[in-house]
Specification:
The protein has 311 residues and is mainly β. It binds beta-L-arabinofuranose. Keywords: Carbohydrate metabolism, Glycosidase, Hydrolase, Polysaccharide degradation, Xylan degradation.
Length: 311
């Protein structure tokens, strides 16, 4: 479903990518961007969606946007909602996508219940990781499994990485924010084997939102450390052991960040979200929206620190 074609005016010459996405000509509060370039050469962005003035991350659906020039974006609308799921009615958090077997897969966290911060024992909240399928990169996606791959009190932020040999690895963080990976079955409808707790070389801050990519034969495991500062590790295998390499984007507003990294037309791009003042919304709080910056590497493969470009 194509909801709207929008023109985003470049903000600054050095960063034509710090944009506000629109849906039906209105701003849409997007977060947790997962960027991919598929066979058709377009760049697709899979995002979660904050309700206007939302609180406590009660989120209902996932959206897709695409472009072939980083300026003109097509909004494909909500491509999956918790209303489509038999097993969850809330917490439509950070998604990722993959292409395999001629199909497109949306992997996503969702859940139900409520968290009782004062008395955690009274919490009824749980979250699981689901996988939905589509014949189109722009969805809509269908949960053909009808159940989460697994559920825990807090399974979140899944990221899929498909290696050159076609093996799909699923990374996520769990209740203790540790570092896990599991192979996906070839049909992508289940996991293959046990969860592997990865060797992080002795440096293990809490993480959210893992994102793995490969460049010049080197694997990069990137994350919002303590959910705020973008940091990374490298390894010669997609399951580690990993070596910590440090920070490449500082935190902003003491708020969470969530990112993805993709190569498009020969340039590396970092998509992430920002918390910006939205006085027009009337809720006296910052709201999230997706932004992007170019990403540069040093000759030794390390990532150059990225500055946010202000609009
Ligand atoms: O958008 C909901 C949650 O906030 C995500 O799953 C986290 O990564 C953080 O961005």
């Amino acid at each position: 479903v194509i909801a709207a074609i929008v023109i985003i005016t470049p903000a600054l010459a050095q960063n034509p990518l710090d944009f506000g996405l629109l849906l039906d000509n209105k701003p849409i509060r997007t977060a947790d961007p997962s960027a991919h370039v598929w066979q058709d050469g377009r760049l697709y962005l899979y995002t979660s969606h904050d309700e206007e003035c939302q609180a406590d991350f009660h989120m209902k659906d996932w959206h897709v946007f695409s472009t072939d020039n980083l300026t003109d974006w097509t909004a494909h609308g909500a491509v999956l909602s918790v209303d489509d799921l038999a097993w969850a009615d809330d917490y439509a958090w950070a998604p990722d996508a993959a292409y395999k077997n001629g199909k497109y897969y949306l992997v996503f966290p969702a859940g139900t219940g409520v968290k009782d911060r004062a008395n955690p024992k009274n919490s009824t909240k749980w979250m699981g990781i689901g996988v939905a399928e589509s014949d189109s990169p722009a969805g809509p996606f269908k949960d053909v499994i009808g159940a989460p791959l697994w559920r825990t009190p807090y399974a979140n932020d899944p990221a899929l990485f498909i290696d050159d040999d076609g093996t799909a690895y699923l990374y996520f963080h769990g209740i203790d924010f540790d570092y896990r990976v599991v192979k996906m079955r070839d049909d992508m409808r289940g996991i293959d084997g046990d969860f592997i707790k990865m060797d992080m070389g002795g440096y293990e801050p809490k993480m959210e939102g893992p994102w793995v990519f490969k460049r010049n034969g080197l694997y990069y495991f990137t994350m919002p450390e303590n959910n705020r500062v973008l940091t990374y590790y490298t390894a010669t295998s997609p399951v580690g052991p990993w070596t910590y390499r440090g920070e490449f984007m500082a935190q902003e507003h003491q708020s969470n960040n969530h990112h993805s990294i993709v190569q498009y037309n020969g340039q590396w791009l970092l998509f992430y979200h920002r918390w910006l003042d939205t006085p027009e919304a009337g809720c006296n709080k910052r709201q999230r929206h997706v932004a992007a910056e170019y990403l540069q590497f040093n000759a030794d493969g390390t990532i150059k620190p990225v500055q946010r470009t202000d609009t």
